[in-house]
Design goal:
Blueprint (H helix, E strand, L loop, with lengths): L8 H9 L6 H10 L9 E4 L5 H9 L4 E5 L10 E4 L5 H11 L3 E6 L9 H22 E12 L4 H9 L2 E7 L10 E9 L8
Parallel strand pairs: 1-2, 1-4, 2-3, 4-5
Antiparallel strand pairs: 5-7, 6-7
Function: Specifically methylates the uridine in position 2552 of 23S rRNA at the 2'-O position of the ribose in the fully assembled 50S ribosomal subunit.
Subcellular location: Cytoplasm
Family: Belongs to the class I-like SAM-binding methyltransferase superfamily. RNA methyltransferase RlmE family.
Length: 200
């Protein structure tokens, strides 16, 4: 019998519609319910492989799109890809140079390799979310937006509070297309405010 974790209606739909993964529908739901991406935005997608969010982003904006992952991403027309660790200053500088201007959106649908130990996996996912937030804070323009996948658990409130320090509007959203039984949720943060030197 085929497991619901490997085959379901969204996996089948993704195959029919040419998306590289079912995760495409999560971003489509987010954009439909909480519009974040505008048609001229420059977007950086972290943990982008295999590229389904990049495929959706290409339909939502005419701006520059950059995907970053530790693994190579099969080429997509109109998308720049970077193989590297987004937590390193070298990759952050490379992304800024490739963007060639202000970065409006940072998205992150990445998750750590799961061990099956709930508390351990949740802590690692929160840590990855913190790294994605640090990246966003380092590259976003004022007024920019941030979307990040994470997992509900005892460490979640701390990450949520950290995001609220940098954005005027912060909400959570669980797409219908998330797998049944998954504890994943998405933080949707709008209107980034960079700290000013010498600000009170």
């Amino acid at each position: 019998m085929t497991s619901q974790w490997t085959r379901d209606k969204y996996s089948n739909k993704a195959k029919r519609e040419g998306f590289r993964a079912r995760a495409a529908y999560k971003l489509l739901e987010i954009q439909n319910r909480h519009p974040v991406i505008r048609e001229d935005d420059t977007v950086v997608d972290l943990g982008a492989a295999p590229g389904s969010w990049l495929q959706v982003l290409r339909t939502l904006t005419k701006g520059t799109i950059i995907g970053v992952d530790l693994n190579p991403i099969a080429s997509l027309e109109g998308v720049i890809t970077v193989v590297g660790d987004f937590t390193t200053p070298e990759v952050q500088e490379q992304v800024k140079e490739l963007a060639g201007g202000a970065i409006s959106i940072v998205t992150c649908d990445a998750s750590p390799k799961l061990s099956g130990a709930t508390s351990y996996d949740q802590a690692r996912a929160i840590g990855l979310g913190e790294e994605a937030l640090n990246f966003a804070v380092s590259v976003l323009k004022d007024g920019g937006n941030f979307i990040c996948k994470t997992f509900q658990g005892e460490d979640f409130p701390e990450l949520f509070a950290d995001v609220k320090k940098h954005f005027l509007s912060v909400k959570t959203f669980r797409p219908v297309s998330s797998r049944r039984g998954s504890r994943e949720t998405y933080i949707i943060a709008k209107n980034f405010r960079r700290e000013k030197d010498g600000a009170p």
